Amino acid sequence: MADNQKMWAELGMNLEMHDMLCAVLPGAIGDVFMSQENRPAAMDYFDMVLADVHGLRPAELVEFRKNGGKVFGTFCAYVPDEVIVAAGAIATGLCAGSQFWVPGGERYLPANTCPLIKAMLGARFDKTCPFYRLADVYIGENTCDGKKKAYEILGTDVPLHVMDLPQMKRPKDYLKWADEIKDLKELVEKVTGNKVTEEKLAEAIKLINAKRAALERLYALRRNKNVPISGTDTLLISQIAYYDDPARFTAMVNKLCDELDQRVADGVSVAEGKKRILISGTPMAIPNWKLHNLVETSGGVVVCEETCTGTRYFENQVDESGATLDEMIQNIADRYMGINCACFTPNTARADDVIRLAKESKADGVIDVNLMFCQTYDIEGRSLEERCKAEGIPFLGIETDYTDNDAQQLKTRIGAFIELLG
Amino acid sequence: MYRTLKSNSLYAQISPTPRELSVCCGVSLLVKGEDVSRIKEIASSGNLNYISIEGLNNTFDNTRHKYG
Lengths: 422, 68
Prior knowledge:
The complex is a heterodimer.
Chain A: H1 4-10, H2 15-34, H3 44-51, H4 56-66, E1 71-74, H5 81-86, E2 90-93, H6 102-106, H7 115-125, H8 130-134, E3 137-141, H9 145-154, E4 160-163, H10 171-192, H11 198-221, H12 231-241, H13 246-266, E5 275-281, H14 290-296, E6 300-306, H15 311-314, H16 325-337, H17 348-360, E7 365-371, H18 375-390, E8 395-400, H19 407-420
Parallel strand pairs in A: 1-2, 1-3, 3-4, 5-6, 5-7, 7-8
Helix pairs in contact in A: 7-9, 10-16, 11-13
Chain B: H1 2-7, E1 12-16, E2 27-31, H2 36-45
Antiparallel strand pairs in B: 1-2
């Protein structure tokens, strides 16, 4: 076993505090994942990544940095990994899905800030996440007011670049996002000392497109009448997508999909008689498995996530036909502007997505889950409910945070909702 | 070790090392108590290394709803 303690100490982590997280996570992983029955064998790779979440990948990043490599930490599905990869750097998502980090964030932020943002700051300032220690530069984005202001605080402790994401989708906004991506390209070139060439960017576009295609394949398999994989396992895969090596991750997802193809052919289901649920809403950063665990222990199976840890992360590809850097960057901008986040106005396309995905995945109902104090998603909940009702799709809106306090109440509500689905 | 146990049709589940056993987190294999002597034989004959095999009185409960 690798000496994680030594690595964490060298990264300047607060070992005593981090140990408290190490004490609770194995139990949660056992309850949420290992208690499931009939899991695909190829989940073993993802189980391994999760089992040593603060050891395996961080050790790779340590080695990469020893050899002069640079790591860029990101927080959002809008930040294009393609540009970072093209400069020979590594992009890693910075996890912010645990209540463990929230109190640390509340020392810097008002309590009525969303838990994801509070966890971001807690993980950094409490020195309890190796990924936050390993990123040389953080790439933020102004997808909400809370993040925007939190980045100002985070930027006092670590080099941080904020991308100015347009909040409308007019033709000039697509051009503006391409300009922002050009700024990112200049930044990564400066930090890494490597030039983003046409050849490198074209390769990176293909690499990340392949990753998105693998996830698309995985999600398509869940549309089958016999659901071959649980939503809980799929959520874990989507969370790992943010920080694993892209080529290896793609290979492992495709290997899993080969097994799932066979399961579909054999009529194997992990959710016999369960109601099919689409979850929409705010991202579920690792280790936030609360809603999936509640749904899947209450007579439901999650068959799709219209979230940033779901379809928003992988739907639509970057057009690979660009020949010049400018063309490629515009193609990247166009793909990412196609994500329908509640930070945009108007954002009716997101409701279109939910309806389409509910139909494609043959969902019996939609559960819209929003993190507490996420104003934009919370406000959209009402119009989303109206759209779903107009389409005859049962809808449940939930607001929650990372604590366990409301788990039993939510279980009662979710259980009642699923019961009503017939 | 994992692959060898699987190829011998033994139950093995990759899992995080419980805090009671290591302060480093890390990866462990969850195996069945009744398989332990067979696993020791396989490890010994195949030169497979492990730190130790320990039993814990832990249970998995998917309705505990404690997420860490």
